[in-house]
Specification:
Elements lengths: L2 H15 L7 H13 L3 H14 L5 H13 L3 H14 L7 H23 L10 H21 L11 H22 L4 H4 L14 H7 L13 H8 L6 H10 L14 E5 L5 E6 L3 H13 L5 H13 L14 E3 L13 E4 L3
Parallel strand pairs: 1-3
Antiparallel strand pairs: 1-2, 2-4
Helix pairs in contact: 1-13, 2-3, 3-4, 4-5, 5-6, 7-8, 7-10, 11-12
Length: about 350
């Protein structure tokens, strides 16, 4: 069989093998997000309405994206309802700087002030386990106390606080393990949301920081959380890319990922401008990775990449729970020749 025919067969097999369950909350949300990447905000809003009718456990990033879709399509009253839900969750306040920027450049002063008046009296109440939140907050304070004392850019495991840092990491790791065994990975419905206004809802939560210090190659690693994170990827109460990020960080990084997670690379040229690209996978790897993603009801890797590229091009306007520094890597210009140039796919962000 000719090589071109083999490629076509592989592509057909990939489509036959992979089919995310579109009837689940996550499957419907994926449809909405893909509509956003095509700037079809009215269609995205229809999917969000279907998703919200599917469950009472709606993630903040979905309310956030639906808010923007409603604003862009002139559905002011609907946008107000979603903004209210975000305020209840503590994901944003209408006076927050990033929120004000995101809404003002879309709606103007008059509508912004109307939203502000509508949400001024709303208090954050939408989480069920304040005791767990307090425990986790204390853990992160302990985690960071002696790391901060070591100073920026300092290898704290070679500094004067190395032993106490190692001890605290061990205590926190066992404490987090007990929490996960009892209640699972803490989600926003248990402990609420930290306000960063960008959809990276769990990155600053203490469970994630404690987990990363148990990552691959960490000098303070004593527990392998891989099994627990893998199970959590299936949990629709947790944002999928955040959980993939966590799993990959404790298992050697994105390059060794069994999920084929998209990775965008960027390099700064002599004029100070960035060039963005990704590395194309062979068709058999695509089939293998998508089959694994299907088992966890995740979108195709190519769909995830499409969202990531859109997220970059629109300056992270929508919340797809990606993270600069991980999903997007800066590399030196002199590294480019080391790649197989035929596999590099460049794209423009202008």
């Amino acid at each position: 069989m000719k090589r071109s025919n083999v490629f076509i067969v592989c592509c057909l097999c990939a489509n036959l093998l992979y089919s995310q369950d579109i009837n689940t909350y996550r499957g419907i949300v994926n449809k909405a997000e893909l509509q956003i990447t095509d700037n079809r905000f009215d269609s995205a809003l229809i999917y969000y309405r279907k998703a919200f009718a599917k469950t009472k456990f709606v993630l903040s990033k979905e309310y956030y994206n639906a808010t923007l879709c409603a604003i862009k399509t002139g559905n002011k009253e609907e946008a107000k309802r979603y903004v209210a839900q975000l305020c209840y969750k503590g994901f944003l306040t209408i006076t927050d700087t990033s929120t004000k920027y995101n809404l003002l450049h879309l709606v103007g002063n008059d509508l912004y002030n109307e939203f502000k008046k509508y949400t001024d009296t709303i208090k954050t109440t939408d989480y069920t386990n304040p005791q767990l939140k307090n425990v986790l907050d204390t853990m992160i304070q302990d985690d960071q106390r002696f790391r901060k004392r070591s100073g920026r850019g300092v290898d704290y495991m070679k500094g004067p606080y190395a032993k106490i840092i190692s001890l605290i990491d061990s205590i926190n790791a066992y404490h987090l393990l007990a929490i996960i065994k009892k209640d699972g990975i803490p989600d926003e419905f248990q402990i609420g949301i930290q306000n960063d206004g960008r959809g990276n809802i769990n990155y600053n939560n203490s469970w994630y920081i404690v987990l990363i210090h148990q990552g691959y190659g960490s000098l303070t690693r004593i527990i392998d959380f891989s099994e627990y994170i893998l199970n959590a990827i299936k949990n629709e109460k947790l944002p999928p890319h955040t959980m993939l990020n966590a799993y990959e960080r404790i298992n050697g990084g994105i390059n060794d990922s069994i999920f084929g997670s998209p990775r965008i690379l960027r390099v700064k040229n002599k004029e100070g401008k960035f060039k963005y690209f990704y590395i194309k996978e062979d068709s058999l790897s695509v089939i293998r990775h998508d089959e694994i993603r299907k088992q966890y009801n995740l979108e195709k890797a190519s769909e995830s990449r499409k969202k990531l590229i859109y997220w970059i091009k629109t300056k992270q306007e929508f919340a797809f729970d990606f993270l600069f520094g991980y999903d997007i890597d800066d590399i030196p210009e002199d590294v480019i020749p080391m790649f197989n140039q035929k596999l590099l796919i460049y794209f423009d962000i202008e």
